[in-house]
Amino acid sequence: MKMLTAIIKPFKLDDVRDALSEIGVSGITATEVKGFGRQKGHTELYRGAEYTIDFLPKVKLEIAIAADQVDAAISAISGAAKSDDEGKIGDGKIFVTSLEEVVRIRTGETGSVAL
Amino acid sequence: MENTILEMQFAIDTFYFLMMGALVMWMAAGFSMLEAGLVRSKNTAEILTKNVGLFAISCTMYMVYGYDVMYGGGVMLEGIEVVAKDATYAAPSDFFFQVVFVATAMSIVSGAVAERMKLFSFFAFAIVFTGIIYPMEGSWTWNGASVFGMYTLGDLGFSDFAGSGIVHMAGAAAALAGVMVLGARKGKYNKDGSSNAIPGANMPLATLGTFILWMGWFGFNGGSVLAMASKESANAVAMVFLNTNAAAAGGVIAALILVKLLWGKADLTMALNGALAGLVAITAGPDTPTALEATLIGAVGGVLVVFSIDILDKVFKIDDPVGAISVHGVVGLWGLLAVPLTNSGVSFSGQLAGAGTIFVWVFGTSMVLWLILKAIMGIRVSDQEESEGVDIAECGLEAYPEFTK
Hints:
The structure holds two protein chains of two kinds.
Chain A: E1 2-8, H1 13-22, E2 29-35, E3 42-46, E4 49-53, E5 56-65, H2 70-81, E6 92-98
Antiparallel strand pairs in A: 1-5, 1-6, 2-5, 3-4
Helix pairs in contact in A: 1-2
Chain B: H1 2-38, H2 44-71, H3 91-112, H4 119-141, H5 164-182, H6 203-222, H7 231-263, H8 268-283, H9 291-314, H10 324-342, H11 348-376, H12 383-388, H13 390-395
């Protein structure tokens, strides 16, 4: 079992959700977060003075899936979250970590049947 | 028959006067929304409390004492009918129309000192400003009284139709003194003196506030014709409405073009200030210019306000979150000086004398009052209260309690 943590642009959320649903992913947790990577912040202008926004709004997705689904999920997220064909700095990242255990609270099932 | 016509004229003029006063009252809503939009969300409830409080204080103090200082009629208006006894409108309608102007002048101060002043120190200032400081200069100008027995502004060729100087520049002079005693907001200026942008929380509210002010201004200038029930006065009112609107439009266009040229972007807040600058500029003489002249007077106001906001902020370190001192003070002075361009009965020297008298009186007395208040009760909240926002510190509640920070 693997845990995918994806940081994406907020307005790509619906596209990514649809792409993951198509390959059979059954659950996603989304959190509104702020951060920066290579994109850094950006500058805005107010009454003649520039100011920098250091942390840009992003959405963090957490997706627990079976190990054999990882490649399909990564390509689904990448395809949906990428700005146009080449992609742009700021499109986000995907982190893959291994997942030791999953428990479904309602039934007490554990392991991959609980995913 | 003739008596019936006179009574009809009396009724129409009074009705007109009251409706225009109600429009000016609505400017209090405009100032509230403009200021709520241009401060940060942690200071919203306090600025709204300030606006509703100052309106009530203005109405009460002007009734108790201010109107008597300005026009006579006695304390608590007990002899008000002697003031406008030859007028074609009811005496209380004159009070009603005048009192909403006092509140307008006081509203100008609240935006400039936003986000850092103690609420009740501001209210204490409002009591004296609306009870004495404004009514004194109002008596020298609109009531034609002599300035401490020395000279009379009317004899010098001074004219201020609806109050570019008497209302707007006076409010700005009190605001300037307040900001000088109060100091800038925390985090506004860096150690090297450079200025930081502190963006306002809500641009739709600021825009709504500007449109409400724009609408209220038809009452401000249109009502200042003081009559409606004759062909002559109806023509004058129509021209004043037309010119007031044209000047606001000129102010927006000029400010938008200028900021696009200066900074490459169409800064909405400057476009809004441009509209108000156009309105302030035309207020001293909306009756005599042609439509083109009114547009140009407004456009010059729109240009002046952009440069003035930038220079006050970056060169003089005057921290005015909403630009009130530039909009009402600098452009108010321009409005006074523009009157002789289209009105041959008014002189530049008279306008300068009037502007100087108003500014010296209001700025001087306000400065003394701010310093006294600072010594007695303090006028600034603590550093920690300012960081947390004056909503919690002064009002104990938040404007948007369901928003996460």
